[in-house]
Please model this.
Amino acid sequence: MDFLTGEFISGLLAIIMIDLVLAGDNAILIGLAARKLPKDQQKKVIIWGAVGAIVIRIIATLLVVVILKVPGLHLIGGLLLVWIAYKLLIDEEEHDVKPADSMWAAIKTIIIADALMGLDNVLAVAGASHGNFTLVVIGLLVSIPVVMYGSTLILKLIERYPFIIVIGAGILGWTAAKMIVAEPFMHNYFANPFVKYGFEAIVVIGILVAGNLRQQKVEKEKAIRNKIQIEQNG
Model:
């Protein structure tokens, strides 16, 4: 894959979009870990916590790119990414991160928690890179300012324009489908371009439809619980 080719550029744009839609968790994570610290220390926590988290993600992503060369793991990774894309559309995530009492404790909390929670980003970036290490590093380096300075803004944009999440989930679904069809032992099943691209389209549409239906159900359940609570308090 050469620079400035359509494949390289589309892969880079996919990685950047993945970083954007998944940056909300970083904003929440940093906010929860640093909320008890003074303002001047919060800025340092944002910088060093984000840098540490990005370094861990670069190492983890490069390892995943190598691991995905093992037969069968493209299929497993693709199926995991389908689930991650589906979960992205459902607003029922909880973040159990306790506030830290010191700057270094907050930085450590952010790095450890991000390493544990960052499977979605690592797997998605590895899948979108198609094994290109240069693309992985460039994509993740682009994500550094996004995580450090733009995550809070992105979180606000996502709240105001929910379709950003839908676009991101679609890209994750497309990446998952491409990982599945790239599995060597399934090559014969997708040798026909019509079958290959049809499968990718079905995966993306299926994720968006299933996620939308599930989100509607979640919102109805929340509305019912709120109504019951109001009636009990009243």
Summary: The helical segments are 6-34, 39-67, 73-88, 103-117, 119-129, 133-160, 163-181, 193-233. DSSP finds eight helices and no strands in the chain. The mean pLDDT is 75.
